[in-house]
Write a structure and sequence with these properties.
With 132 residues, this protein is mainly beta. It is built from one helix and eight strands, in the order H-E-E-E-E-E-E-E-E. It starts with 13 loop residues before the first helix and ends with a strand. 20% of the residues are buried. Bound molecules: zinc ion.
Amino acid sequence: MSNKPVPVPDSETTPFWEAAAQGVLKVQRCTGCGEHVFYPRVVCPSCLSDDLQWVSVSGRATVHAVTVVHRAAAPFKEDLPYAVALVDLAEGPRMMTQILTDAPEKLAIGDAVEVEFRRQGEGPPLPFFRPV
Ligand SMILES: [Zn+2]
């Protein structure tokens, strides 16, 4: 059994984790300016409106930056080597994630990726990405 740390939903992040449990990627969208917002927060970083709604997004993204992890302590050692990336969602927000691939060294900036939810241990499913 994995003993990896798991997310602890709070009042700002509960809608994100409830959607994740259904295999749906949601981010906030500002009704004031229309910007999509991630990470979850109470005020839009673009226009300071506090009218943020949760919306489903496509799950499509492109790699903004990527690195391959070759050394890690338990409990992540079992996953080596693995790719950690910043990906830009098609709707705009940038997320940190892990890219699921058997060839992490072949990943490159600009690669198209798609969300894939995967459970790790006792926590809710987490949004990983996979090359498309
Ligand atoms: Zn806004």
